[in-house]
Amino acid sequence: MSANDDRDPLFRYDDPVFADERLLEITHLPGPDRIVGRDEQMQRVADALNPAIFGSEPNHLFIFGKTGTGKSLISRSVTKRVISEARRDDVTVKYAFIDCGEQNTEASVIKTIAQIVNEPDRSGISVPDRGLGTGDYYKRLWQAVDHCTDVTIVILDEIDMLEDDEVLRKLSRAGENRRISDSSIGIIGISNKIDFPDHLSERVKSSLSRDELVFSPYDANQLVEILEKRRDAFHDGVLSDDVIPLTAALAAQEHGDARKAIDILRNAGRIAKKQNDTRVTAEHVRDAKEKTEADRFNELIEGSPQQAKAILYALTLLTENSSEKEFPTKIIYNQYKEIARQLDFDVLSERRVQEILQEQNFLNVIQSEREGRGRGRGAHAKHRLLENPSIVKKVLLRDARLAPLEDADAADREDSAGTGPQP
Ligand SMILES: Nc1ncnc2c1ncn2[C@@H]1O[C@H](COP(=O)(O)OP(=O)(O)OP(=O)(O)O)[C@@H](O)[C@H]1O
Predict the structure, then answer these.
(1) Sorted alphabetically, which Pfam families does this protein's record hold (predicted)?
(2) To bridge 277 with a disulfide, which of 160, 216, 234, 272 should be the other Cys (CB 3.0-4.6 Å)?
(3) Whole-angstrom distance, CA of residue 19 vs CA of residue 183
(4) Alpha helices per DSSP H over 149-257
(5) pLDDT at site 376
C-alpha cells in the first residue's frame, strides 16, 4: 500500500500545473538572483541604509515610481540584507513595513511599528491594540525602539495616503529631539505620486526628502526576464512557448508593470488548472489578463459606497459612447442623475458628486485634472477613467443594487446594433 492510499479522496494531492505557486504570490520576496534590472536602484537604497550596518542612523529616502516597478521589492530586499549584515557585528536592525493605504492615521502607524519592534521581555512594556492615546503610543514606541533595536527601518508604502505628515515629522527627528537615546530610525517613503513632497510641510520636507529615487517602468524584455526567473513556479513543460512573451507584452501595454505580469501569469495557471488543462496556453493568458484587471479594479472600489459606484458608472458610459476621454464634472453629473433615477437612488448634489469624484481620484480609480494645470479640484475639473470601460462596467455590475443597469445596457446595445424591434 502506498503512502497516499489512506488519504482523504475528497481532496487533491498533486497539482498538475504549479510546482510552487508561492513564487507568484505578491507577498513573496524573491532572492537577489531573481531580481532583474534594478542594480542601480539597489545600490542607491544600500547607500542610504549603509550606516545601519554599524548601528548608526541611516539616511531617509523617498522612492517614486508607477505600480509594479519594484519599489517595495527593492526596499524590502535591501533592508533584509542590511539586517543580516548587521547581525554579523551584533548590531540589531529591525524593520516595519507599513501599508499606509490601510493604516493612514498617526496612532495606527506608531502602534504598528511599536508592536513589530517590541519584545516585552526586553522592554518591559506591552503595546495594546487599543485603549491608548497617540501620545502614549509614541512613548511606548520610543521605549521599544531603545530597548529592542539598534536601528529601526520604517518602510512607509503608499506614503501619500497618510492623513497628515505629523508622524513623518516625529519619526524623522526622533534622534535629533532626543526621543530615543540608544537607537536610531531610518525612513523609506514609497509613493507613485511624484509630486508628493510638494504637499509636505517645509519642516518635514527639509528633514526627509534629501534623497529621492525614481523607478521607471520595465520594458517588455525586462518583463520577460522577470517572468523567466519565476518559470519554476510551474512544472516542466506546462507553459507553452508563447505564454511568457505574450504575458510580458500585455503587461507592458500601459506601462511596464511587473505586478500585473506576475498576476496574469499566475491567473493563467489557475484558469488552466480549473479547466483541467495540463498546459497553459495563450488563450488562458488572454482570459487571465481580463480577470487580473477586473480583480485589481475590484480591489480599488471594494469599499466605495453605491452612490460612488453610480457616479463611476456614469463616467464609464460617457467614456464608452464618446471619442473623448476626459469629462467635466457637470457632464458626469447630468449622466449620474439619469442613472440615480433608474436605480431609485436619492440624487446627490453636484457638490457632493464633485467630492466623490475627488475621492476616487485619490484612490487612483480615476484621474482628475483642473482645466489648465494641476491636480483637479472644484467645479472645473475634468475626469478620466483609468481602466478599460468594459472591465469597469463588469465589476460595477457585480453590485446587486446596480444590476438593473445591466438590462438597460443590453437594450441600448441591441438598439445601436439595429437588432431592436422593427417598426
Ligand atoms: N526587478 C524585478 N525583478 C523581479 N521581480 C520584480 C521586479 N520588480 C518587481 N517585481 C515583482 O513584481 C511585483 C510587484 O513589485 P512591487 O510590489 O515591488 O512593486 P511596487 O513598485 O512596490 O508597486 P506598488 O506601487 O503597486 O506597490 C512583486 O511580485 C515583485 O516581486
Answers:
(1) AAA_22, Cdc6_lid, WHD_Cdc6
(2) 272
(3) 44
(4) 166-172, 202-208, 220-228, 243-251
(5) 46
* Other CB atoms within 10 Å distance of the CB of residue 113: 27
Q: Which residue has the cell 460617457?
A: 318
pLDDT digits (tens, 9 = 90+) for 249-303: 999 987 889 999 999 999 999 999 999 999 999 999 999 999 999 998 998 887 8
So what's the architecture of 303-416 in CATH? Orthogonal Bundle (1.10)
The kind and range of the H/E element at 350 are helix 350-362
pLDDT of residue 173: 83
Percent of the chain with pLDDT over 70: 93
For ligand 1, say whether the CB of 61 is within 6 Å of any of its atoms: no
Residue from 253, 231, 283 nearest 68 by CA: 253
Q: What ipTM, to 2 d.p.?
A: 0.98
Ligand 1 center to 382 CA (angstroms): 31
pLDDT at 203: 77
The whole-number pLDDT of residue 417 equals 63
Q: What is the pLDDT of residue 379?
A: 59
CA-proximal residue: ligand 1, atom 29 (nearest):
26
Using DSSP, state whether 78 is helix, strand or coil: helix
CA 44 – CA 383 distance, rounded (Å)? 36
Q: Cα angle at 89 between 87 and 95, to 5 degrees?
A: 35
Phi, psi of 139 (to 5 degrees): -55, -45
Class of domain 37-215: alpha beta
Q: Which residues contact 384 (CB under 8 A, 6 or more apart)?
A: 319, 325, 326, 327, 366, 367, 368, 369
Distance of CA 142 to the CA centre of its chain: 29
| Domain locations along the chain | 37-215, 218-300, 303-416
pLDDT of 301 reads: 86
Asked if CATH classification 1.10.630.10 holds for the domain at 218-300, the reply, yes or no, is no
DSSP letter assigned to residue 184: E
DSSP, collapsed to helix, strand or coil, labels residue 161 as helix
What letter represents residue 397's amino acid?
Answer: L
Atom in ligand 1 nearest the alpha carbon of residue 35: 3
Helix (H) or strand (E) holding 215: strand 212-215
Mutate to test the pocket of ligand 1, among 24, 27, 66, 72 (most ligand atoms within 8 A of CB): 72
